[in-house]
Amino acid sequence: MTSPLDKLREYGYELPMPKAPVATYIPVTRTGNIIYVSGQISSDANGVAEGKLGDTMNVVQGGNAAELAAVNFLSQVVHSAGIDLAKVKRVLKLTVFVNSTPDFAEHHLVANGASNRIVGVLGEKGKHS
């Protein structure tokens, strides 16, 4: 059976070390057996994905940016919460914020970049509301 980290590598990613918080918040909060991960930005070793959907960024680029945020989410689970991805029981909820023009209407396609990567790595356990 392929491990979640191996699946992530199949998509061309190594799990990055999380970036330090830029404000007073903490990246992960745990209560009982539930963890809450703070918002993750679309960034990698090349910097932050910048642009506005419907203006300087298309849906594919937006989906790729959402995918980067999902990889950073997985990184927080492993590095900040200390949880092996193979032991994750379920992703309960995912919220994706999209920077777009007022007339942009394909937010769901952009958000799928994050959803698809999480499900691709975690399988059924990654399906979320």
Mind explaining what this structure looks like?
The protein is of the alpha+beta class and 129 residues long. The chain has a single domain (4-126), classed as RutC-like (60s Ribosomal Protein L30, Chain: A). It contains three helices and four strands, in the order αββββαα. It has helices spanning 4-10, 59-80, 107-122, and strands at 28-31, 34-37, 43-44, 47-48. It has a two-stranded antiparallel ribbon. A two-stranded antiparallel ribbon has the order 3-4. A hairpin with a 2-residue loop joins strand 1 and strand 2 (34-37). Helix 1 packs across helix 3. The longest helix has 22 residues, at 59-80. The mean pLDDT is 96.
Key phrases:
129 residues, alpha+beta, 60s Ribosomal Protein L30, Chain: A, two-stranded antiparallel ribbon, 4 strands
Chain-wise SSE layout:
Blueprint: H1 4-10, E1 28-31, E2 34-37, E3 43-44, E4 47-48, H2 59-80, H3 107-122
Antiparallel strand pairs: 1-2, 3-4
Helix pairs in contact: 1-3, 2-3
